[in-house]
Amino acid sequence: MSEKSEIQLESTNYEPVTEVNIILTSLQQNEENIELHKMNGQENLRSPELKKENSSLRMIVLLELYKRYFNALQISIVFTLYEFFGVITNLTGNIMESRLGIQALLVSGYFIHTVGIAMLCGLQRYWNSWNSSIIIIYATIAQGYSRIAKDLVKLGCKSVIKLATKDDNPQQSIIFKLVTWIVNAKNSVKGVGVFLGAFLLQYMDYIPALFILVAINLMIIIFALIYFDHDLAVSESKKQMTFKEIFDKGRDVNILSMARMFLSGSRDLWFVVPLPLYLIGQVGWPYFSTGALLASWIILSEMIQFITPYLILKPLQIYPVKNGPYCHRDKVAMDVGLYYMANVFGRLVGLILGGVLYYYIELGACLWASVGALIICTIVSFFLGPVSEYQGEQTKS
Description:
The protein has helices spanning 3-13, 19-39, 53-67, 72-100, 102-123, 132-164, 172-203, 207-227, 243-247, 251-268, 274-283, 287-313, 332-360, 363-381, 388-396. The chain has 397 residues and is mainly alpha-helical. It has one domain (45-396): Growth Hormone, Chain: A (Up-down Bundle), CATH 1.20.1250. Helix 5 packs antiparallel against helix 6, helix 6 (132-164) runs antiparallel to helix 7 and helix 13 runs antiparallel to helix 14. InterPro entries: MFS_ArsJ, MFS_trans_sf. This is 11695_t:CDS:1. Keywords: Membrane, Transmembrane, Transmembrane helix.
C-alpha cells in the first residue's frame, strides 16, 4: 500500500467523524500530500491560468485547486459559500430591486464581481506561502463575491421577461420568444465560459485575463449607468415588504420552488465537483478535454430547455406568457426571487452532499443520489394545482 493511502486510512480510521473534524482532517491530509510530492520531485505548483466570466472563473478555481492537490471535499467547501451567498442574494436582492430598480442591481453586481476578481488576482502571490486553510477561506470568500454579483445581475435580467411581455401588447408572443431566446443564450454562454476557463487555464496566463475581465466589467457598469432607467422595475407600492410576505407566495409557487430545489440539487450532486475530478483524476483527461465535455453538456441541456416549451405548447396553440400567472407585475422581482432562492438552496445541498459522497464513496454514489432527487422532484410536481386557478387572480391584480 502506498504512503499516500496509509495517510488516508490513518486519518479516517482513528479520528472521530464530526463535521469540523472532517474539514480539519481534509486540510491536514492536503498538507501531507503536498509534502509527498515535494519529496518525490513531483511538485508542479504553477500559477493558476485564466478565467473568463463567472463560469470560467469557477472552472479555473476548481481545476487550479485540484492541480494543487486539494481533494473533492475541500473543493466542495470552497464552493459552499458560493452557493450560500446565492441563497442570501436571491432572498434579499428581490427586495433591493423592488425598491431601487434593475439599474442598481446591475451596477452593484458588476462592481462586486470586480472586487472578487481583484481578490483572486492577489491570491497568485500567496499560493506557495499560505497553508491550505487560509487558501480555502480566501478562495471561498472571493467565490462568494462572484456569486452575489451573478445573482444580482441574473435576478434583474429574469425580471425583464415579465416587464417586456405586457398583456395588451399585440406582439406579445414575438417579444416573449425573443426574450426567451436571449435568456437561454445566456445560459449557453455558461457552457462557453466553462470551456474557456479550462482552455485558458491550460494555455494562457492568469493575471492578464483577469485584468481583461475587470475592464469588461467597468464597461458594462458605464453602459448600465447611461442607458438604463433608474426606476426600471421599481415597485409602485410604498408598502414595506417583510420576509413573511416573501415566502408567502401561494401553495403552487411554494410547491414549484420545492420541485426546483430537488431538480437543481440533482445536477450538482454529480456535475459540479465529482465529474470533473473523476475525469481528470481517474480517467486521466487533460483540462481542455474535461472543460469541452462539461461545456458541451451545458450547451446541449440549455438547447433542450429552450425547445421544450415549443414542443409542449405549440400543438396546444398557447404561449408560456398566458400560462405563467405566478408573478405580480408590480412585484415581479420579489415573486421570482423565492423561486430562484429555492434553486440555489438545492444547488448548495447538492454541492455539499456530492463532495462528501465522492470523497468517501465514489462517483456512482453521487449518480444514485441524483436519481433519488429527481424522483422526489417528480413526486412533488404532481401536487401542483391547475393553472386555471391563477388565471383569474392575475387578471384581477
